[in-house]
Amino acid sequence: MLICTHCGRKYPAEFLRCPICNEPLQLPYFEGKIKKGNKVWKRFADFYPFTLLLKNSLGEGDTPLLYLPKLSQQLKINIYAKNETQNPTWSFKDRGTFVAMQYVLNISRRVGTVSTGNMGASVAAYAAHLGVKSYILVSKEIPEEKLAPIGIYGSEILRVMGDYGELYYKSIEVGKEKGIYFINSDNPFRVEGYKSIAYELAEKIDGDYVIIPTSSGGLFRGIHKGYVELKRSDLIEDIPELICAQAAGCSPIYNAFSQGKERIERVEHPNTIAHAIRNPYPPSGDAVLRILKEGNHCEIAEDHEILEAQKELAKDGLFVQPASAVSLAVVKKLVAQEKIEKGSKVILVLTGAGLKYIPPIRINIRDCSINDLSRCFE
Ligand SMILES: Cc1ncc(COP(=O)(O)O)c(C=O)c1O
Ligand SMILES: [Zn+2]
Hints:
Blueprint: E1 2-4, E2 10-11, E3 25-26, H1 40-43, E4 65-67, H2 69-75, E5 78-83, H3 93-107, E6 110-115, H4 118-130, E7 133-139, H5 148-151, E8 156-160, H6 164-178, E9 181-182, H7 188-204, E10 209-213, H8 218-232, E11 241-247, H9 252-258, H10 285-292, E12 297-301, H11 303-315, H12 322-336, E13 345-350
Parallel strand pairs: 5-13, 6-7, 6-9, 7-8, 10-11, 10-13, 11-12
Antiparallel strand pairs: 1-2, 1-3, 4-5
Helix pairs in contact: 3-4, 3-7, 7-8, 9-10, 11-12
The protein binds pyridoxal-5'-phosphate (PLP) and zinc ion.
């Protein structure tokens, strides 16, 4: 059973959005106890309405939480990184794909998604693993180098001309007609996968702030749902403040939040280096706004700040893509504004790996002759 995040009406599992208010649906809040097990899916089995079969897993989840000493010292806060780049296709999307695929296997042998890169690779990989045919719909602007990491898994890639925001809705419509189940960005079962990030964080740290790079809003909703379930189960005392981090060049949620609006508005000319979070009309935008109103916050960062943050994370040994580096860029702003107090425990969700998109990275190389090699060292 699914419940509308806005009006609370109930629908069967095959629905994807509320037909009355067109808002996203979600599974009910689950309560339970933590069990023993080396996999988050086993430890938190009480919080899922169906058995998560580990034979379908590619090893997603249970990612490291790292303390970043240099940045912590520099900003006078305690910064931790939840390193989601260590998932099987190098982004957090794998958690959602794993859980959603358990549902797909019961209803269809064909699956699809609309993707800027990460989700396409993730769905293609799990579909290959499980012997399901996959269709990945990408926008015409997708950089060429993002296609190989999707195509390698043997998925069918369709490059679609037209508005990317609209493609989300269109794919669901056509998917119904053709018997292809679309596990798009904020699919209810995908969100159930993302909530496992909150579970793993709560097992390790009583954080003050969790910074979440946000595009469609699926990840933000998932982490929030996870924390709410832990609180309702008396497993945590307080939910950390959740910070929605967006790129200034495409910030529909921030725009509505900062103007006190109830609904997001489409961004007409999205333009940011953080391609993975460039959704001009996020399908869970209004749902995220409702969560923000419960005492959470939203902030943006410019492209130059994002690229600077990407370099700073690399100084701590972490190579993330711009869409992930936005988390640190936003923290620096919030510390400067004294919105984040000194000494706070701040968790960056590092959503995707840097190797996925390398063109913006500038490096210095010195040429050397083997005969003069010793002269090349200063
Ligand atoms: C690297 C990265 N970070 C963050 C996000 C944002 O996730 P969501 O669309 O669930 O808000 C995405 C989404 O594609 C992503 O690829
Ligand atoms: Zn509704």
